[in-house]
Write a structure and sequence with these properties.
By secondary structure, the protein is of the alpha/beta class. It has helices at about 5-20, 30-40, 50-65, 75-85, 105-110, 130-140, 160-170, 220-230, 255-265, 270-285, 320-330, 355-365, 375-390, and strands at about 65-70, 90-95, 115, 150, 175-180, 200, 215-220, 290-295, 310, 335, 350-355, 365-370. α3 runs parallel beside α9 (about 255-265) and α6 (about 130-140) packs parallel to α7 (about 160-170). The strands form two sheets. Strands 1-7-6-5-4-2-3-11 form an eight-stranded mixed β-sheet, sandwiched between helices. It has a four-stranded antiparallel β-sheet with strand order 8-9-12-10. The two termini are about 45 Å apart. Bound molecules: pyridoxal-5'-phosphate.
Length: about 400
Protein backbone atom coordinates (compact mmCIF):
# COMPACT_ATOMS: atom_id res chain seq x y z
CA UNK A 1 0.00 0.00 0.00
CA UNK A 2 2.74 2.39 0.99
CA UNK A 3 4.21 2.76 -2.51
CA UNK A 4 0.86 3.81 -4.02
CA UNK A 5 0.31 7.51 -4.52
CA UNK A 6 -2.46 9.16 -2.52
CA UNK A 7 -5.88 9.13 -4.17
CA UNK A 8 -5.96 12.80 -5.22
CA UNK A 9 -2.72 12.38 -7.16
CA UNK A 10 -4.08 9.36 -8.99
CA UNK A 11 -7.12 11.33 -10.04
CA UNK A 12 -5.00 14.23 -11.19
CA UNK A 13 -2.91 11.90 -13.29
CA UNK A 14 -5.94 10.29 -14.91
CA UNK A 15 -7.36 13.71 -15.64
CA UNK A 16 -4.21 15.00 -17.28
CA UNK A 17 -3.93 11.95 -19.56
CA UNK A 18 -7.55 12.17 -20.70
CA UNK A 19 -7.72 15.92 -21.25
CA UNK A 20 -8.32 16.18 -24.95
CA UNK A 21 -6.51 18.81 -26.97
CA UNK A 22 -8.83 19.91 -29.76
CA UNK A 23 -7.80 21.19 -33.15
CA UNK A 24 -9.40 24.61 -32.74
CA UNK A 25 -11.84 24.89 -29.84
CA UNK A 26 -13.97 27.92 -28.93
CA UNK A 27 -12.17 30.47 -26.75
CA UNK A 28 -14.47 32.77 -24.82
CA UNK A 29 -13.22 36.01 -23.29
CA UNK A 30 -15.87 36.57 -20.61
CA UNK A 31 -17.32 39.59 -22.42
CA UNK A 32 -19.71 37.33 -24.34
CA UNK A 33 -21.72 36.47 -21.24
CA UNK A 34 -22.34 40.13 -20.48
CA UNK A 35 -23.79 40.70 -23.93
CA UNK A 36 -25.86 37.53 -23.67
CA UNK A 37 -27.15 38.60 -20.24
CA UNK A 38 -28.17 41.96 -21.69
CA UNK A 39 -30.17 40.13 -24.32
CA UNK A 40 -31.94 38.12 -21.62
CA UNK A 41 -32.59 41.17 -19.44
CA UNK A 42 -34.20 43.05 -22.32
CA UNK A 43 -35.91 39.88 -23.60
CA UNK A 44 -34.30 40.28 -27.03
CA UNK A 45 -34.26 36.51 -27.54
CA UNK A 46 -35.08 36.57 -31.23
CA UNK A 47 -33.54 36.19 -34.67
CA UNK A 48 -33.03 39.98 -34.79
CA UNK A 49 -32.24 42.67 -32.23
CA UNK A 50 -29.77 45.31 -31.05
CA UNK A 51 -26.81 42.90 -30.78
CA UNK A 52 -27.35 41.83 -34.38
CA UNK A 53 -27.31 45.48 -35.54
CA UNK A 54 -24.25 46.32 -33.44
CA UNK A 55 -22.36 43.17 -34.45
CA UNK A 56 -22.98 43.94 -38.12
CA UNK A 57 -21.80 47.53 -37.74
CA UNK A 58 -18.68 46.57 -35.76
CA UNK A 59 -17.84 43.74 -38.14
CA UNK A 60 -18.24 45.93 -41.24
CA UNK A 61 -15.96 48.52 -39.72
CA UNK A 62 -13.36 45.88 -38.72
CA UNK A 63 -13.07 44.36 -42.20
CA UNK A 64 -13.55 47.69 -43.96
CA UNK A 65 -16.75 47.15 -45.89
CA UNK A 66 -19.80 49.41 -46.00
CA UNK A 67 -22.45 46.82 -45.14
CA UNK A 68 -22.82 43.45 -43.45
CA UNK A 69 -25.67 41.01 -42.76
CA UNK A 70 -25.36 38.57 -39.85
CA UNK A 71 -26.59 35.09 -40.78
CA UNK A 72 -27.04 31.63 -39.32
CA UNK A 73 -23.91 30.28 -41.05
CA UNK A 74 -21.20 30.98 -43.58
CA UNK A 75 -22.81 28.39 -45.85
CA UNK A 76 -26.06 30.38 -45.77
CA UNK A 77 -24.01 33.46 -46.70
CA UNK A 78 -22.53 31.76 -49.74
CA UNK A 79 -25.96 30.50 -50.81
CA UNK A 80 -27.37 34.04 -50.64
CA UNK A 81 -24.30 35.47 -52.40
CA UNK A 82 -24.81 33.10 -55.34
CA UNK A 83 -28.52 33.98 -55.53
CA UNK A 84 -27.75 37.71 -55.38
CA UNK A 85 -25.15 37.25 -58.11
CA UNK A 86 -27.91 35.78 -60.28
CA UNK A 87 -26.27 32.36 -60.61
CA UNK A 88 -28.79 29.94 -62.10
CA UNK A 89 -29.13 26.35 -63.29
CA UNK A 90 -26.87 25.86 -66.32
CA UNK A 91 -24.27 28.35 -65.10
CA UNK A 92 -20.74 27.39 -64.16
CA UNK A 93 -18.90 28.69 -61.10
CA UNK A 94 -15.12 28.55 -60.58
CA UNK A 95 -13.83 27.43 -57.17
CA UNK A 96 -10.66 25.85 -55.78
CA UNK A 97 -10.61 22.09 -55.37
CA UNK A 98 -8.64 22.23 -52.10
CA UNK A 99 -11.29 23.57 -49.74
CA UNK A 100 -14.01 22.58 -47.30
CA UNK A 101 -17.11 21.21 -49.02
CA UNK A 102 -19.14 24.22 -47.80
CA UNK A 103 -17.39 26.38 -50.44
CA UNK A 104 -18.87 24.20 -53.17
CA UNK A 105 -22.23 22.83 -51.98
CA UNK A 106 -24.03 26.20 -52.32
CA UNK A 107 -23.12 26.18 -56.04
CA UNK A 108 -25.24 23.04 -56.23
CA UNK A 109 -28.03 24.62 -54.14
CA UNK A 110 -28.62 27.11 -56.98
CA UNK A 111 -28.42 24.38 -59.63
CA UNK A 112 -25.10 25.54 -61.07
CA UNK A 113 -21.98 23.47 -61.83
CA UNK A 114 -18.64 23.86 -60.05
CA UNK A 115 -15.47 24.09 -62.15
CA UNK A 116 -12.56 23.03 -59.96
CA UNK A 117 -9.05 24.49 -60.02
CA UNK A 118 -5.78 23.39 -58.41
CA UNK A 119 -3.84 25.36 -55.79
CA UNK A 120 -0.55 27.22 -56.06
CA UNK A 121 2.36 26.59 -53.67
CA UNK A 122 2.79 30.07 -52.15
CA UNK A 123 -0.50 30.20 -50.25
CA UNK A 124 -2.20 26.86 -51.09
CA UNK A 125 -5.10 28.88 -52.52
CA UNK A 126 -6.34 28.87 -56.13
CA UNK A 127 -3.70 29.07 -58.86
CA UNK A 128 -4.50 32.22 -60.90
CA UNK A 129 -2.74 31.02 -64.07
CA UNK A 130 -4.69 27.75 -64.06
CA UNK A 131 -7.87 29.74 -63.45
CA UNK A 132 -7.05 31.82 -66.54
CA UNK A 133 -6.56 28.63 -68.60
CA UNK A 134 -9.79 27.20 -67.28
CA UNK A 135 -11.76 30.30 -68.24
CA UNK A 136 -10.39 30.14 -71.82
CA UNK A 137 -11.28 26.47 -71.98
CA UNK A 138 -14.83 27.03 -70.67
CA UNK A 139 -15.33 29.80 -73.24
CA UNK A 140 -14.15 27.40 -75.99
CA UNK A 141 -16.45 24.63 -74.77
CA UNK A 142 -19.56 26.64 -73.77
CA UNK A 143 -19.30 29.80 -75.83
CA UNK A 144 -19.34 31.84 -72.62
CA UNK A 145 -17.29 32.23 -69.45
CA UNK A 146 -18.41 30.92 -66.05
CA UNK A 147 -20.96 33.17 -64.38
CA UNK A 148 -19.20 33.59 -61.03
CA UNK A 149 -15.95 32.90 -59.21
CA UNK A 150 -15.91 31.77 -55.56
CA UNK A 151 -12.47 32.83 -54.34
CA UNK A 152 -11.56 30.82 -51.22
CA UNK A 153 -8.97 31.98 -48.66
CA UNK A 154 -7.73 28.94 -46.71
CA UNK A 155 -6.36 28.38 -43.21
CA UNK A 156 -6.08 32.07 -42.32
CA UNK A 157 -4.37 33.33 -45.44
CA UNK A 158 -5.54 35.39 -48.40
CA UNK A 159 -5.41 34.05 -51.92
CA UNK A 160 -3.59 36.14 -54.55
CA UNK A 161 -6.55 38.43 -55.21
CA UNK A 162 -5.25 40.89 -57.82
CA UNK A 163 -4.85 38.50 -60.80
CA UNK A 164 -8.23 36.93 -60.00
CA UNK A 165 -9.90 40.35 -59.86
CA UNK A 166 -8.35 41.19 -63.23
CA UNK A 167 -9.55 37.92 -64.78
CA UNK A 168 -13.08 38.48 -63.49
CA UNK A 169 -13.17 42.04 -64.81
CA UNK A 170 -11.86 40.99 -68.24
CA UNK A 171 -14.49 38.30 -68.66
CA UNK A 172 -17.45 39.82 -66.81
CA UNK A 173 -17.34 37.09 -64.15
CA UNK A 174 -18.89 38.00 -60.78
CA UNK A 175 -16.33 37.73 -57.98
CA UNK A 176 -17.58 36.27 -54.69
CA UNK A 177 -15.29 35.48 -51.77
CA UNK A 178 -15.30 32.69 -49.22
CA UNK A 179 -13.28 34.22 -46.39
CA UNK A 180 -14.74 31.83 -43.79
CA UNK A 181 -11.24 30.88 -42.61
CA UNK A 182 -9.51 34.18 -43.23
CA UNK A 183 -10.97 36.69 -40.77
CA UNK A 184 -8.12 38.87 -39.52
CA UNK A 185 -5.78 38.21 -42.45
CA UNK A 186 -4.74 40.83 -45.00
CA UNK A 187 -4.02 41.19 -48.67
CA UNK A 188 -1.90 44.33 -49.10
CA UNK A 189 -3.49 45.89 -45.98
CA UNK A 190 -7.06 45.06 -47.02
CA UNK A 191 -9.23 42.24 -45.72
CA UNK A 192 -9.88 39.28 -48.01
CA UNK A 193 -13.65 38.99 -48.30
CA UNK A 194 -13.97 42.68 -49.23
CA UNK A 195 -12.68 42.58 -52.80
CA UNK A 196 -15.58 40.88 -54.54
CA UNK A 197 -19.19 41.88 -55.12
CA UNK A 198 -20.02 39.93 -51.95
CA UNK A 199 -17.92 38.10 -49.37
CA UNK A 200 -18.70 35.67 -46.57
CA UNK A 201 -17.21 34.87 -43.17
CA UNK A 202 -17.98 32.05 -40.72
CA UNK A 203 -18.31 31.95 -36.93
CA UNK A 204 -18.61 28.19 -36.65
CA UNK A 205 -17.32 26.67 -33.41
CA UNK A 206 -13.83 25.99 -34.74
CA UNK A 207 -13.17 29.31 -36.50
CA UNK A 208 -10.86 32.03 -35.15
CA UNK A 209 -13.86 33.63 -33.42
CA UNK A 210 -17.21 31.93 -32.97
CA UNK A 211 -20.85 32.71 -32.25
CA UNK A 212 -21.41 28.95 -31.65
CA UNK A 213 -22.60 28.93 -35.25
CA UNK A 214 -23.10 31.83 -37.61
CA UNK A 215 -21.85 33.77 -40.59
CA UNK A 216 -21.59 37.23 -42.11
CA UNK A 217 -22.27 38.41 -45.64
CA UNK A 218 -20.48 41.65 -46.54
CA UNK A 219 -20.57 44.08 -49.45
CA UNK A 220 -20.11 47.74 -50.30
CA UNK A 221 -23.46 47.56 -52.09
CA UNK A 222 -26.20 48.50 -49.62
CA UNK A 223 -29.00 47.30 -51.91
CA UNK A 224 -27.49 43.82 -52.10
CA UNK A 225 -27.19 43.58 -48.32
CA UNK A 226 -30.73 44.90 -47.83
CA UNK A 227 -31.90 42.22 -50.26
CA UNK A 228 -29.86 39.60 -48.38
CA UNK A 229 -31.54 40.59 -45.09
CA UNK A 230 -34.93 40.23 -46.72
CA UNK A 231 -34.11 36.84 -48.26
CA UNK A 232 -32.76 35.63 -44.93
CA UNK A 233 -36.08 36.35 -43.15
CA UNK A 234 -38.45 34.49 -45.50
CA UNK A 235 -38.48 37.38 -48.01
CA UNK A 236 -41.36 39.31 -46.48
CA UNK A 237 -42.51 42.25 -48.56
CA UNK A 238 -43.23 45.56 -46.82
CA UNK A 239 -46.84 45.03 -45.75
CA UNK A 240 -48.62 44.58 -42.42
CA UNK A 241 -49.89 41.16 -43.53
CA UNK A 242 -47.53 38.41 -44.58
CA UNK A 243 -46.90 38.92 -48.29
CA UNK A 244 -44.21 37.27 -50.41
CA UNK A 245 -43.12 37.63 -54.02
CA UNK A 246 -39.90 35.62 -53.94
CA UNK A 247 -38.60 32.50 -52.21
CA UNK A 248 -36.90 33.30 -48.92
CA UNK A 249 -34.98 31.44 -46.23
CA UNK A 250 -34.66 31.38 -42.47
CA UNK A 251 -30.98 32.36 -42.40
CA UNK A 252 -30.81 35.25 -39.92
CA UNK A 253 -28.49 35.28 -36.90
CA UNK A 254 -30.13 35.33 -33.47
CA UNK A 255 -29.60 38.22 -31.07
CA UNK A 256 -28.06 35.76 -28.56
CA UNK A 257 -25.45 34.55 -31.05
CA UNK A 258 -24.73 38.14 -32.09
CA UNK A 259 -24.07 38.94 -28.41
CA UNK A 260 -21.44 36.19 -28.35
CA UNK A 261 -20.05 37.59 -31.59
CA UNK A 262 -19.65 41.09 -30.14
CA UNK A 263 -17.64 39.71 -27.22
CA UNK A 264 -15.49 37.65 -29.58
CA UNK A 265 -14.83 40.43 -32.08
CA UNK A 266 -13.49 42.60 -29.25
CA UNK A 267 -10.68 40.09 -28.63
CA UNK A 268 -9.92 39.13 -32.24
CA UNK A 269 -6.51 40.90 -32.29
CA UNK A 270 -5.42 38.83 -29.25
CA UNK A 271 -6.71 35.66 -30.87
CA UNK A 272 -4.65 36.30 -33.99
CA UNK A 273 -1.58 36.96 -31.89
CA UNK A 274 -2.06 33.72 -29.95
CA UNK A 275 -2.52 31.65 -33.13
CA UNK A 276 0.55 33.17 -34.70
CA UNK A 277 2.47 32.44 -31.50
CA UNK A 278 1.46 28.75 -31.73
CA UNK A 279 2.82 28.64 -35.24
CA UNK A 280 6.16 30.28 -34.32
CA UNK A 281 6.52 27.91 -31.40
CA UNK A 282 6.03 24.88 -33.63
CA UNK A 283 8.38 26.20 -36.27
CA UNK A 284 11.14 27.04 -33.81
CA UNK A 285 10.82 23.83 -31.81
CA UNK A 286 10.66 21.55 -34.82
CA UNK A 287 13.34 23.30 -36.85
CA UNK A 288 15.90 20.53 -36.42
CA UNK A 289 13.62 17.68 -37.40
CA UNK A 290 14.14 16.74 -41.05
CA UNK A 291 11.22 16.47 -43.46
CA UNK A 292 8.83 18.99 -41.91
CA UNK A 293 7.78 22.00 -43.95
CA UNK A 294 5.39 24.68 -42.76
CA UNK A 295 2.66 26.39 -44.74
CA UNK A 296 4.31 29.42 -46.34
CA UNK A 297 3.17 32.94 -45.56
CA UNK A 298 2.77 34.57 -48.96
CA UNK A 299 4.41 37.93 -49.58
CA UNK A 300 1.11 39.73 -50.09
CA UNK A 301 -0.21 39.84 -46.56
CA UNK A 302 -0.65 38.62 -43.01
CA UNK A 303 -1.48 34.99 -42.26
CA UNK A 304 -3.51 34.64 -39.03
CA UNK A 305 -2.38 31.00 -38.65
CA UNK A 306 -5.99 30.08 -37.90
CA UNK A 307 -4.55 26.61 -38.33
CA UNK A 308 -0.86 25.69 -38.13
CA UNK A 309 -0.31 23.38 -41.10
CA UNK A 310 2.70 21.23 -41.87
CA UNK A 311 3.82 19.05 -44.77
CA UNK A 312 5.79 15.87 -44.15
CA UNK A 313 8.27 14.57 -46.70
CA UNK A 314 10.10 11.21 -46.80
CA UNK A 315 12.94 12.61 -44.69
CA UNK A 316 10.53 12.82 -41.73
CA UNK A 317 10.49 9.04 -41.68
CA UNK A 318 6.75 8.62 -41.02
CA UNK A 319 3.59 9.60 -42.85
CA UNK A 320 1.10 12.26 -41.90
CA UNK A 321 -1.34 9.47 -41.04
CA UNK A 322 1.27 7.87 -38.71
CA UNK A 323 1.58 11.22 -36.98
CA UNK A 324 -2.18 11.82 -36.83
CA UNK A 325 -2.75 8.40 -35.28
CA UNK A 326 0.05 8.99 -32.75
CA UNK A 327 -1.67 12.24 -31.73
CA UNK A 328 -5.03 10.49 -31.48
CA UNK A 329 -3.53 7.87 -29.16
CA UNK A 330 -2.52 10.73 -26.89
CA UNK A 331 -6.03 12.19 -27.10
CA UNK A 332 -4.90 15.05 -29.31
CA UNK A 333 -6.87 16.11 -32.36
CA UNK A 334 -4.88 16.78 -35.55
CA UNK A 335 -6.44 16.70 -38.97
CA UNK A 336 -5.36 16.13 -42.57
CA UNK A 337 -5.69 19.12 -44.89
CA UNK A 338 -9.04 19.37 -46.68
CA UNK A 339 -9.57 16.46 -49.02
CA UNK A 340 -9.74 18.11 -52.46
CA UNK A 341 -13.15 18.24 -54.12
CA UNK A 342 -11.95 16.46 -57.27
CA UNK A 343 -11.20 13.42 -55.05
CA UNK A 344 -14.65 13.47 -53.43
CA UNK A 345 -17.35 11.05 -54.63
CA UNK A 346 -19.69 14.06 -54.64
CA UNK A 347 -17.61 16.19 -57.03
CA UNK A 348 -15.26 13.85 -58.89
CA UNK A 349 -17.28 14.27 -62.12
CA UNK A 350 -16.69 18.04 -62.19
CA UNK A 351 -14.29 19.64 -64.65
CA UNK A 352 -10.89 19.93 -62.94
CA UNK A 353 -7.87 21.98 -64.05
CA UNK A 354 -4.52 20.75 -62.70
CA UNK A 355 -4.61 18.76 -59.47
CA UNK A 356 -1.04 17.70 -58.69
CA UNK A 357 -0.50 20.39 -56.04
CA UNK A 358 -3.76 19.74 -54.17
CA UNK A 359 -3.14 15.97 -54.33
CA UNK A 360 0.33 16.43 -52.88
CA UNK A 361 -0.82 18.82 -50.14
CA UNK A 362 -3.57 16.41 -49.15
CA UNK A 363 -1.22 13.41 -49.11
CA UNK A 364 1.40 15.09 -46.93
CA UNK A 365 -0.40 17.82 -45.01
CA UNK A 366 -1.52 17.88 -41.38
CA UNK A 367 -3.16 20.63 -39.31
CA UNK A 368 -1.70 20.74 -35.80
CA UNK A 369 -3.76 21.81 -32.79
CA UNK A 370 -4.07 25.56 -33.24
CA UNK A 371 -6.45 26.94 -30.63
CA UNK A 372 -5.78 30.36 -29.13
CA UNK A 373 -6.24 28.82 -25.67
CA UNK A 374 -3.44 26.22 -25.97
CA UNK A 375 -1.22 26.23 -22.89
CA UNK A 376 2.57 26.04 -22.96
CA UNK A 377 2.21 22.55 -21.55
CA UNK A 378 -0.14 21.54 -24.39
CA UNK A 379 2.28 22.83 -26.98
CA UNK A 380 5.19 21.00 -25.36
CA UNK A 381 3.19 17.77 -25.43
CA UNK A 382 2.39 18.29 -29.11
CA UNK A 383 5.98 19.00 -30.09
CA UNK A 384 7.15 16.02 -28.03
CA UNK A 385 4.90 13.68 -29.99
CA UNK A 386 6.17 14.98 -33.33
CA UNK A 387 9.75 14.36 -32.13
CA UNK A 388 8.87 10.85 -31.00
CA UNK A 389 7.16 9.90 -34.26
CA UNK A 390 9.94 11.27 -36.50
CA UNK A 391 11.85 8.36 -38.00
CA UNK A 392 9.58 5.62 -36.60
CA UNK A 393 8.05 4.68 -39.96
CA UNK A 394 11.34 3.94 -41.64
C1 LIG B 1 -16.28 26.88 -42.19
C2 LIG B 1 -16.24 27.11 -43.66
C3 LIG B 1 -17.38 27.43 -44.40
C4 LIG B 1 -18.77 27.35 -43.87
O1 LIG B 1 -19.06 28.08 -42.78
P1 LIG B 1 -20.24 27.59 -41.80
O2 LIG B 1 -20.43 28.78 -40.93
O3 LIG B 1 -19.72 26.40 -41.08
O4 LIG B 1 -21.43 27.29 -42.63
C5 LIG B 1 -17.24 27.73 -45.73
N1 LIG B 1 -16.04 27.67 -46.33
C6 LIG B 1 -14.93 27.34 -45.68
C7 LIG B 1 -13.64 27.33 -46.42
C8 LIG B 1 -14.98 27.02 -44.32
O5 LIG B 1 -13.87 26.64 -43.68
Amino acid sequence: MSDQPPMDEVQLEVKSVSKRIYLSPPHMSGLEQEFVSQAFETNWVAPLGPHVDAFEADFASYVGTKHAAALSSGTAGLHLALILAGVEPGDEVIVSSLTFVASVNPIRYVGATPVLIDSERDSWNIDPSLAAEAIQDRIRKNGRPPKAFVLVHLYGQSADVAPIQKLCEEHGIILLEDAAEALGSTYHEKAPGTFGKLGIFSFNGNKIITTSGGGMLVSDDGDLIAHARKLSTQARDTAPHYQHTEVGFNYRMSNICAGIGRGQLAVLPERIQARRANFSFYRTQLREIPGIDFQPEASWGRHTRWLSCILLSDAFGATREDLRVAFEKENIEARPLWKPMHLQPLYEECAMYGGAVADDLFARGLCLPSGSSLSDEDRERIVGIVRNVAGTGR
